[in-house]
Amino acid sequence: MNKSRARSVLVQDDNIEKALRKFKKKVQNSGILNDLRKREFYIKPTTARKLKRSAAKNRWRKQLAAQQLPPRTH
């Protein structure tokens, strides 16, 4: 369950800014920050189900809107 691994980046030619950019990119791609934000507060199971259901409805509405023809402008 614990997916945390050590993240490291080598600093070459005293270029700390480049190494920091690489590190931030690695952290972002691994999804660690998203996972931490998701687990920051406890969400009750019923609330989680409600959120999932409303997100599914929003995705469905967005998909339907994309399939419809654009409104007439004249």
Q: Tell me the total number of β-strands.
A: 0
End-to-end Cα distance, whole Å, is 58 Å
| pLDDT averaged residue by residue | 87
Please outline the major beta sheet: none
Rg over CA atoms: 21 Å
Uncertain ranges: none
Give me the secondary-structure category: mainly alpha
**Amount of helix:** 55-70%
Q: Please provide the ordered H/E string of secondary-structure elements.
A: HHH
Identify the overall geometry: flat
Strand content: under 5%
The number of helices is: 3
Q: What is the topology?
A:
Layout: H1 16-30, H2 32-38, H3 45-67
Gist?
The protein is mainly α and 74 residues long.
What does this protein look like?
The structure is a single chain. The chain is mostly helical and 74 residues long. The protein has a domain of 49 residues. Helix content is 61%, strand content 0%. The longest helix is centred in the C-terminal third of the chain and has 23 residues. The chain is flat, with a radius of gyration of 21 Å. The chain starts with 15 loop residues before the first helix and ends in a 7-residue tail after the last helix.
